[in-house]
Amino acid sequence: MSESITTSRPRLGHSVVRANMAGAGAALTIAGFLLIVFQFIALHAALVRDVHVQARIVGANSVAALLFNDRRAAEETLAALEASPSLRAAGIFSALRKPLALYQHGDAAPVRAPDAAMLRESDVSTLTTLEVVEPVESERRVIGYVVVRSSLSELYMQLLGYAVLTVSVGIGAMGLAYLVIARMRRAVLQAEAHLDYLAHIDSVTELPNRHAFNERLQVSLKRAGQAGAVGLLLLDLDNFKVVNDTLGHNNGDRLLRQVARRLNDVIDQANLRAVLCRIGGDEFAVIAELSGRAQIAEAEAATLAEGLAKRVLAALAAPFALDLHQIYVTASVGVSLYPHDARDVQVLTRNADTAMYHAKNRGKNAAASFTSEMDQQARRRLRVEADLRRALDREELLLAYQPQVRLRTEGAHDAPISKANVYGVEALVRWRHPEIGLIGPGEFIAVAEETGLIVPLGLWVLRTACQQAVRWMREDGITLRVAVNLSARQTRDPALVENVMDVLRETGLPPHQLELEITESVLMEDIEANIALLESLHAAGISLSIDDFGTGYSSLAYLQRFPIQKLKIDRSFVQRMPGDGEAIAGAVIAMAHSLRMQVVAEGVEDPEQLALLRDAGCDLGQGYLFSRPQQADALLAWLNRLDSPEDDGSAVFADGEAAPRASLPSSLAG
Ligand code: C2E
Ligand code: CA
Ligand code: CA
């Protein structure tokens, strides 16, 4: 599975060496050439000087010979030149430039009498020879001339020796330069490799990182071409944050490495050309080339990819050992297929991501394959996200109220409810979107949480619900408690208590008529902070209840520490009545009563459930059996119908028929 990382960047190292060596070579060549030219000039000047000196010595020695026109003496003087082999020829001439004596070395040509030009220059040089003339004087009168010719061969020999030296020094220097540059190149290559590594490899797991993931996915899609198929699995660990927060980052990193190892084992066994990447904190990706270039049916490709996803989930099932802890890790996996779901890297990744979120929403530890419906949902979610901000300003939000009814009343079990037995209402928010229509809180509360919009939204719900309760009290003479839901983010808002107090003051609702509902899981997120929060709300006289009880993981010991007055048994348990839900409801009710809490059963839908809850001693009930959530005026009408004499018993369980149903389609009313 581990293919080597390929990079498209040119190797810097080679060009560095080439450029540096070429530069050094050129510099040395130019320097060498200049040195040799200067050396030639210097040697030549020295030779000219020497030959002049020799000619002058000969001249001094031939004064007498010239004065007395003594040929023999002149010839003897010249014969002394034999000792200097580079002097090829010489001559002594009278003042009238008649030769007195001539000397030649070997078969060299004799010198000729100096002409006017020669006398002016005093020396003449060719490529091979140098000829100088020196006048001979006696008593300030020129009595003759000495001409000496020297060969340049010795000068060339010297120059050659010098050139050989220069070139060898140059070669030596180049060698040295090569060593230095080669070392530099090695350093550059190393740095390059390291940069490449950092850019492509995740340092914790040593897997390809997000950057490398994109490159590799691109390569795989290209390789698959028109016929082949590629499966992309995006995998998100469900509870990694908890491990990181409770056991520390070191252990978090160790866990990631262990997860990576197990995933790689799965991939190795899968017999596919596949690669595992770590593309985020707790996100991994598997790129699996399902058929190479070969044609493959979509169904077959999907089966392969889903099989791999299942094996990935199975591989994580066994606990991980960290120090003395046994950690259970689950993941949500999203699968999307090239070319069936998308033809490019971006869309394929986005689709796998969408599928992954679906798996997560379906209760985690699950895999989901991308479908086009998911895409529509994702688009709708984006729309909701984009429009929600304006919803508040444009007054598109509204509240529905669902009554809570006292169950522990005197008289027969099936006696109609009276107005007096309606204990209060729960306020439930809805959004009337101008184009989409009514949207339920299940769709937008989570979005509001993520964007932080829940804080102003929650405040609006609180204020509106309190205003409504006051209006019912003042205008209709009905006193109802009103329960308002608090989200996780709201409980972490440091201004919450102050805001709640402000709303109570503004609206004039007595604090004991307000109830705040916090879900069990939110309560357990930060126990100490929530105890402090609930204490201050409780101190202000506000009632508090635990929502969706039984779905979180509260322990009794903790429950005792919260100043809670009520438990709301989650709908899922009531739904399992008659059946195993009874035992759970019974236990919760007994436990709550022992802690002096009241119990509300949520989602009561049929009379049988109601009877069982009454038998179990449940204090309050809420559900479609009594009424669906409905808008304020419809709820008032429902209340007023309860005690009206023309109602027979059947109307007792009415759910606020006409008006609310019309304005709130049943699918959205709860
Ligand atoms: P919840 O607090 O558990 O609210 C009860 C939900 O159960 C409501 O759904 C209600 O319509 C529904 N329900 C009531 N009786 C029955 C029944 O007999 N059968 C069935 N099947 N369902 C019933 P709704 O209104 O869709 O609200 C869903 C969730 O949205 C609420 O669950 C609550 O967690 C959240 N929510 C609603 N309004 C607000 C709000 O203003 N702020 C916050 N933070 N959350 C809210
Ligand atoms: Ca609630
Ligand atoms: Ca609930």
TrEMBL record:
Alphabetized NCBIfam families for the sequence: GGDEF (TIGR00254)
Entry protein name: EAL domain-containing protein
InterPro entries per record: Biofilm_reg_signaling (IPR052155), CHASE8 (IPR033417), EAL_dom (IPR001633), EAL_sf (IPR035919), GGDEF_dom (IPR000160), Nucleotide_cyclase (IPR029787), Rev_trsase/Diguanyl_cyclase (IPR043128)
PANTHER family found in the cross-reference section: BIOFILM ARCHITECTURE MAINTENANCE PROTEIN MBAA, DIGUANYLATE CYCLASE DGCP
Skewed-composition ranges (Low complexity): 659-670
Domain GGDEF: 228-372
Alphabetical list of SMART domains matching this protein: EAL (SM00052), GGDEF (SM00267)
Source organism: Ralstonia flatus
Positions of region (Disordered): 649-670
Spans through the membrane: 21-42, 159-181
Domain of life the protein comes from: Bacteria
PROSITE patterns given in the database record: EAL, GGDEF
EAL domain mapped to chain residues: 381-643
Keywords, alphabetical: Membrane, Transmembrane, Transmembrane helix
